[in-house]
Amino acid sequence: MNIYVGNLPKSINEEAVRTAFSAYGEVTEVKLIKDKYTNELRGFGFVEMPSKSDALKAIESVNGSDLGGQSITVNEAKPRESRNQSFNRNRSW
User: Fold this and answer.
1) Are the CB atoms for 68 and 5 separated by under 8 Å?
2) Can you tell me the distance from the alpha carbon of 87 to that of 65, in angstroms, rounded to the nearest whole number?
3) What's the CATH superfamily of 2-68?
4) Is the pLDDT of residue 86 over 70?
5) pLDDT tens, 10-34?
6) How far is residue 10 CA from its own chain's centroid?
7) Residue 55: which residues within 8 A CB-CB, separation 6 or more?
């Protein structure tokens, strides 16, 4: 199950996020999102846990907790929507 983690401090690292979630089950991947121009963390990321029950337990327990001095937001990740969803490329002007 893919989990969204938001309001992360810019000083956090993948290992700290992995540790916070590993208390509730196996973590297969941690991906912290960086700005493509500055390479700084953007304040959110994703955690992948293979067990849905462990992931739901982690979401309930970690949401609102303090990580790196900030109260983090944790919920089930939603699929990314296409940025050009409303743009019709076949339209003739």
Assistant:
1) no
2) 40
3) RRM (RNA recognition motif) domain (3.30.70.330)
4) no
5) 999 999 999 999 999 999 999 999 9
6) 14
7) 1, 3, 24, 25, 49, 76
Token pair 């994703």 is found at: 46
| Encoded tokens for 53 | 């029950």
- List of residues 6+ apart from 61 with CB closer than 8 A: 23, 24
Please report, as a single letter, which amino acid is at residue 74: V
3-state helix, strand, coil in the chain (%, to 5): 20, 30, 50
From residue 36, give the alpha-carbon distance in Å to each of 13, 42, 49, 50.
17, 10, 26, 28
Instruction: Provide the 8-state DSSP code for 85.
Output: T
Distance of alpha carbon 61 from alpha carbon 21, whole angstroms = 9
CA distances (Å), 57 to each of 7, 74, 79, 81, in order? 20, 11, 21, 26
